[in-house]
Design brief:
Blueprint lengths: L13 E9 L2 E2 L4 E5 L26 E8 L8 E6 L9
Antiparallel strand pairs: 1-2, 1-3, 1-4, 4-5
Length: about 90
Amino acid sequence: MIQSEAVSMTVMERKVVCCIYNGDDPVTQEKEVTLNSTDATNLNNRVFEVTLNLNKSVNASMLQLRIYDVDDKLNPLVRETVKNNTMIEQDF
C-alpha cells in the first residue's frame, strides 16, 4: 500500500483497515495499518506491506480487496477486484 502524501502540518496520519471479501463475507483477518510516514522526498519510505491470508476455503476465483478508514467501515476508500490464485485445478 502506498501513502500518497507525507504526514505534515497540513496532512494528518490515517489509520486504515484492509480485508479481502467474498461477496460481503470477509475471508481474511482485518489488518490495521497506520499511514504515518513524514518522508516527503522518498516514496519508498511511504510504502507499507500488507499480507492477507485466506482463513477459510473459498471457491470463488475473484475476490474483493477493501480498505476502510478505521472510523468509517461503511464506505471503503479502496475497492479492488483480486484474483484468487489458491484454487487447485484438477489434472484430468
